[in-house]
Specification:
The complex is a heterodimer of chains A (465) and B (119).
Chain A: H1 2-22, H2 30-49, H3 57-74, H4 82-107, H5 117-145, H6 160-180, H7 188-204, H8 212-234, H9 237-260, H10 265-270, H11 293-302, E1 305-310, H12 312-316, H13 320-332, E2 336-341, H14 351-358, E3 366-368, H15 369-372, E4 381-385, H16 394-397, E5 416-421, E6 441-445, H17 448-464
Parallel strand pairs in A: 1-2, 1-4, 2-3, 4-5, 5-6
Helix pairs in contact in A: 1-2, 1-9, 4-5, 4-8, 5-6, 5-7, 5-8, 6-7, 8-9, 11-17, 13-17
Chain B: H1 4-13, H2 22-44, H3 51-62, H4 65-74, H5 79-109
Helix pairs in contact in B: 3-5, 4-5
Classes of the chains: A alpha/beta (465), B mainly alpha (119).
Chain lengths: 465, 119
């Protein structure tokens, strides 16, 4: 009887997982999606408990308790740290898959009839995907958290790509050998594990901060695929379905991120983007025009439509609340304020939306790049806060620029552009931004939080006067 | 009611064909293929506003690895294997708990247009 109960629980769980993602299509129904996911997961766990062979209840209770002890605090992180948390979760997902694959492989050494060619192949795929996701995601999390002992800038060395692909090739070759001789060549298994762990580290080392949205999405996909492989090993359809949903979600997000940067997967993974571009020739001696907070506030007051372009700099400076106050001041004057969100702004897909939603900006004011660009010519003032490459007009015409071809927010087409920036140093990607030297651009130098705070103060004093 | 004897017969066997045979394997490949297409279809329609919560939600969903971990940790195996399973179970549980909690926390912040501000 338990077989039927388990299968029924898994069937309902599969349906609920699909519905859970379906309800994410609208912010209004999204929380229902989370509820569906929770119910599905509960059913899946309870169903699994019905398995007749399960006896080690103490171990299970202990592990579940540990999961709660780590998981609950991990959900309290500030939203600026969500990219790191996500990377750590990918690491845990990869670790779980890798360990289950390892356990199954050694268990079946005593019952080798279970190690059919298909299963061994699935175990090899599970272990390689799982362990490379584990170390790769930990590296990504370290880079995002800006840990001192992990280099932030991309690390490159000669023959890097040859080494990486070679390592993966050796791991795959060992895997193929195992498929044919799963017991006689069992000593190859630890070699595969070690190679996968090393490959994960080496894959992320050459990747810079600006590429993190793509890499996180890709690791998301790998974590899902490792769950699929586990499903193949354990003959479990629920694992295959839930893993496939995660895998395809990661794939779509990676494609969106790649398109938003006009780059290919191979270019992101093997291109070592984000190095400082040492362009031949002397730096041009153009100067950017400065503006004071007072002057900028006056300009903003006169506008009828203002578009704010937030970038990672806003998150770093924790300026979201000040931006909300600025939004309130401007809307109180019946000025239309919209936010232009570039798909790769921030360190993970959708990062800016979450940060601005936390600051109580209504979500209908958060406009996607493709929808806001046609409005730019009618916009009086564009306020760029800590964004850089996503507003660089060089992407449109400068074929020598590393970001050439990347779709950008047309900040240069507005009647006036105000850009808040710490200094004239090039941003993370190390690319000069023409926008700052354009005729209609005025710079506000300083920390984003302080500058926006000054703007708010100016507006408040002018309204009370 | 015609299928009742059939059902009784299958229920008597209780356990499924759990053999890792080529047939079982290909049926899983079909499931994988269809689930991927459903996933692609559903996820392309997810609002771009919600891509960060989407990723933390799929994070929690892919922690379905918990099912495999429970089986490894829970069955009577040598202690090393049980330990591997328990670590995998703790890792999956962490993802489930933190994934769903943080997704809900983020989604609560998306205010309806015109809604009142938080005090």
């Amino acid at each position: 009887m338990s077989f039927w109960l388990i299968e029924a629980a898994y069937l309902v769980a599969s349906a609920l997982f699909v519905l859970s993602l379906h309800w994410m299509n609208d912010p209004k129904s999204a929380r229902k999606g989370v509820l569906a996911g929770v119910v599905a997961m509960t059913l899946a766990v309870l169903g699994t408990f019905l398995n007749p062979g399960i006896v080690n209840w103490g171990w299970i209770a202990g592990a579940v308790a540990v999961g709660f002890l780590i998981g609950v605090p991990l959900s309290w992180v500030p939203l600026t740290a969500v990219p790191q948390r996500t990377a750590v979760s990918h690491a845990f997902g990869g670790l779980a898959a890798g360990l289950v694959g390892t356990a199954k492989f050694y268990l079946w050494q005593d019952a080798p009839e279970n190690l059919t060619a298909f299963r061994t192949f699935a175990i090899v795929a599970e272990v390689i995907l799982g362990f490379l996701t584990f170390t790769g995601s930990l590296m990504a999390a370290g880079k995002l958290q800006e840990l001192k002992w992990i280099p932030q800038r991309p690390v490159t060395y000669p023959l890097q790509n040859v080494t990486n692909i070679g390592l993966l090739g050796v791991a795959l070759a060992c895997g193929v050998a195992l498929v044919f001789q799963p017991v006689a060549l069992a000593h190859l298994f630890p070699v595969i594990v070690a190679l996968a762990l090393a490959f994960g580290v080496l894959l992320i080392i050459p990747i810079g901060g600006a590429d993190m949205p793509t890499v996180i999405s890709l690791l998301n996909s790998y974590a899902g695929l490792s769950a699929v492989a586990m499903g193949f090993v354990l003959d479990n359809k629920l694992l295959v379905i839930a893993g496939a949903l995660d895998g395809s979600s990661g794939l779509i997000l990676s494609i969106i991120m790649c398109r938003a940067m006009n780059r290919s997967f191979t270019n992101v993974l093997f291109g070592a983007f984000g190095q400082v571009q040492r362009k031949a020739g002397v730096a041009e001696t153009r100067t950017a025009k400065r503006e004071t907070a007072e002057g900028a506030a006056q300009v903003l007051e006169m506008a009828s439509q203002v578009v704010i372009v937030p970038g990672y700099g806003m998150a770093v400076a924790q300026a979201q609340q000040r931006v909300r106050e600025l939004y309130d001041e401007l809307t109180r004057r019946r000025i239309e304020v919209k936010f232009a969100i570039h798909p790769v702004a921030g360190r993970m897909p959708g990062h800016m939306n979450v940060l601005l939603a936390e600051a109580d900006i209504p979500y209908d004011k958060l406009i996607e790049m493709d929808d806001i660009n046609p409005e730019m010519a009618q916009t009086d003032v564009v306020l760029v806060i800590g964004a850089n490459d996503v507003v660089n007009p060089a992407a449109r015409h400068d074929k020598t620029s590393p970001i050439f071809g990347m779709p950008i927010i047309d900040a240069d087409k507005a009647r006036m552009c105000l850009a808040i920036k710490r200094s004239m140093n090039p941003g993370f990607a190390g690319i000069e931004n023409e926008l700052y030297f354009a005729d209609r651009t005025y710079m506000l130098f300083g920390d984003a939080k302080a500058v926006v705070g000054d703007l708010v103060k100016q507006l408040q004093s002018s309204s009370s006067a | 009611m015609l299928c009742a004897p059939l059902l009784a017969a299958t229920m008597a066997s209780d356990a499924p064909a759990h053999d890792g045979s080529p047939a079982a394997f290909t049926s899983l490949v079909f499931v994988f293929l269809l689930a991927t297409f459903i996933g692609l279809g559903v996820v392309t329609r997810v609002s771009r506003l919600l891509h960060t919560p989407l990723m933390s939600l799929t994070n929690a969903i892919s922690a379905i690895a918990v099912v495999g971990s429970i089986v490894i940790a829970g069955q009577d195996h040598p202690p090393v294997i049980t330990l591997l399973g328990a670590i995998a179970l703790a890792a999956s549980m962490t993802n489930i708990v933190s994934g769903f909690l943080i997704t809900d926390r983020m989604l609560r912040m998306f205010k309806k247009p015109g809604a009142k501000k938080r005090p």
